[in-house]
Amino acid sequence: MTIDFEKTDGLVPVIIQDIQTLEVLMLGYMNQEAWSKTQQEGKVTFYSRSKSRLWTKGEESGNFLYVKETHIDCDQDTILIKVTPVGPTCHTGSRSCFKTNFNQNFIFELEKIIHDRYDHPTEESYVNKLRKKGLNKIAQKVGEEGVETVIAALNETDVDFVNESSDLIFHLLVLLREKGKTLADIGVNLEGRHR
Length: 195
Fold this sequence. Notes:
Elements: E1 12-18, E2 24-30, H1 32-41, E3 45-48, E4 53-56, E5 65-72, E6 79-85, H2 106-119, H3 126-133, H4 135-155, H5 158-178, H6 183-194
Parallel strand pairs: 1-6
Antiparallel strand pairs: 1-2, 3-4, 5-6
EC number: 3.5.4.19, 3.6.1.31
Pathway: Amino-acid biosynthesis; L-histidine biosynthesis; L-histidine from 5-phospho-alpha-D-ribose 1-diphosphate: step 2/9; Amino-acid biosynthesis; L-histidine biosynthesis; L-histidine from 5-phospho-alpha-D-ribose 1-diphosphate: step 3/9
Enzyme class: hydrolase
């Protein structure tokens, strides 16, 4: 599918989304030259309307946006680019140009951190220490946290319940990684059940 640059006077809007967390990071614009450069180099290049020139995100800061997937909308006049960002995306130092109270998809970021701990283990890492104990210990830990979550729900404060639920989800993510599964596997399964 080709992009219809003519429909929008040579510039099309480009939505930048973190491929891991699915968080929308920013909106920019591309002309045909910026689109071509982005495809060739694998780093997002925009057309800067204020500077009237091509601008590769990160050219000064080093906070590049590495292209992982590109999608063109049904009208062929908007691009969605899923990226792996290096550092904050916004010039203010924020992760996203859109202000939110928290990263609503942090659970995907946490999954990425756990995978990184597996791929690059360090002695002080809790994930690494748990991993060394093996599958049985990791599964046992999920069971323990599940029981503690139930107890907190029935007998403790909301703060305790949220803390125990967080422990349960964290340890479940470690167990998923140990078994070679991901949140995406769970999402696909749940979506299939919903139909």
